[in-house]
Design a protein that fits this description.
Length: 273
């Protein structure tokens, strides 16, 4: 008889995210304790931790693991890109239909828009303004004209903030802007960092059509800095797991909501190897 099948990639990635959360919350954890907590072998836990080390999310010491001191779940881009991957891809596929050849776009730095950037890279002759180095690299690499809104570089977001970005936004006008939010409650939008809340709010009104992409995990949450409400947006894309009362609140503000189906991941047998 053969060994147990390896679990699907989505299951492995979710466990690694949970491991990272555990390390961040406790500061320092023994690797044997992590293996016991998650019910996997020591070898499997070392593989998980090595993957997190490669992404510069944790440091392995002798028998222990620690997170980088400045790392938080809300602000680490390299953590956020691994969250709700299927949902982000589904939202991106739907939102890409809003983009036509020759358009001028405004795109914020949210990890939710990274899959969108990859999809619209195939659309001809776009002009894109963004404060995200990740978005800029994706689209410039595909041959599009990209205006990078520079200012203070924030490594944890791989993007720029500050008065220079706000001033540049004041002088722009786009066909469509794409934004995401860290937290949404009853139609109100929040972010854990003031500079980014200001940028998101400033983007609103700088395009003929403003689109918000937000998966279900962002609803019913708050953060220290508000940046307006969804009533300022023309269209919201979300997934079917978004709470109905939250969607009703958005519709009550007069904003169109499109609920996007998310394909179910393949289910394999979760191995303890």
């Amino acid at each position: 008889m053969g060994g147990r099948a390896r679990p699907p990639d989505a299951v492995v990635e979710q466990r690694r995210q949970d491991v990272l959360r555990q390390v961040i919350e406790h500061g320092e954890v023994r690797i044997t304790d992590l293996a016991g907590h998650f019910g996997v072998s020591l070898m499997t836990m070392h593989r998980d931790l090595d993957a997190l080390v490669d992404r510069r999310l944790v440091r392995k010491l002798r028998g222990r693991v620690t997170a980088y001191p400045s790392l938080t779940l809300e602000t680490a881009t390299r953590f956020r890109v691994g969250l709700q991957v299927a949902e982000k891809e589904a939202l991106a596929a739907a939102a890409a239909a809003e983009v036509e050849p020759g358009m001028t776009l405004l795109v914020d730095d949210s990890s939710t828009v990274f899959p969108l950037a990859r999809r619209i890279a195939e659309v001809a002759a776009l002009r894109v303004f963004t404060n995200s180095l990740t978005v800029a690299q994706i689209l410039a690499g595909a041959g599009h004209e990209v205006g990078l809104l520079g200012g203070r570089y924030r490594a944890e977001f791989d993007s720029c903030t500050g008065p220079e970005v706000l001033k540049a936004l004041d002088g722009l006008h786009a066909d469509v802007s794409f934004v995401s939010a860290a937290a949404v409650t009853e139609g109100h939008l929040f972010h854990p960092v003031r500079d980014y809340a200001e940028i998101k709010q400033r983007i609103v009104g700088r395009a003929e059509r403003t689109v918000l992409l937000v998966d279900h995990s962002k609803f019913g949450k708050s953060a220290p800095f508000a940046h307006g409400d969804v009533g300022a947006y023309d269209l919201v894309f979300t997934d079917a797991a978004a709470p109905a009362p939250e969607l009703d609140a958005i519709r009550g503000l007069g904003t169109e909501v499109r609920v996007v189906p998310v394909p179910e991941p393949d289910r394999g047998t979760d191995a303890i190897s």
